[in-house]
Design a protein that fits this description.
With 116 residues, this protein is mostly helical. α1 runs antiparallel to α2, α1 crosses α3 and α2 packs across α3. The protein has one domain. 6% of the residues are buried. It has three helices and no strands. It is rod-shaped, with a radius of gyration of 42 Å.
Length: 116
C-alpha cells in the first residue's frame, strides 16, 4: 500500500511539475510579448519627441517670419507717413521718393490722394 501511495504521489508531483513547466513557458512568452510591446512604445515615444522638436523648430521659424513681416510693415507705414508729410510741406515728388525710400509711383499715388 505504501508503494502505491508513493507512486500516486510521484505521479502527482510529475503532473504538477509538467503544469509548472507549462506555466513557466507561458509566462516567458507573455514576458517576451510585453517586452516587445514596451520596445514599440519606447520607439513611438522617441518618434513623438522628434515630431515635437520639429514642430517647435517650425513654430519658431513661423514666429520669426511673422515678426519680420510686422517690422517691414511698420517700416513701410512710417515711410508712407513721412512721405505724406513731405508732400504736404511741398517737397518735390522725386525728393520725397529718395528720402522716404518709396518708389516714385508710390509717392505719386500718395500725392494724388493727399492733394484732392
Amino acid at each position: 500500500m505504501c508503494k502505491i501511495m508513493e507512486e500516486i504521489k510521484a505521479e502527482g508531483y510529475a503532473e504538477g511539475l509538467e503544469d509548472a513547466k507549462e506555466q513557466i513557458a507561458e509566462a516567458k512568452e507573455q514576458a517576451a510579448e510585453a517586452k516587445e510591446q514596451a520596445m514599440r512604445a519606447k520607439e513611438q515615444v522617441a518618434e513623438a519627441k522628434e515630431q515635437i522638436a520639429e514642430a517647435k523648430v517650425q513654430a519658431a521659424a513661423a514666429i520669426k517670419q511673422a515678426v519680420e513681416a510686422e517690422a517691414r510693415a511698420e517700416t513701410k507705414k512710417n515711410a508712407i507717413k513721412n512721405a505724406i508729410s513731405m508732400l504736404q510741406d511741398g517737397l518735390p515728388m522725386e525728393k520725397v521718393s529718395r528720402y522716404s525710400g518709396l518708389s516714385l509711383s508710390e509717392v505719386q499715388e500718395f500725392a494724388a490722394l493727399t492733394c484732392h
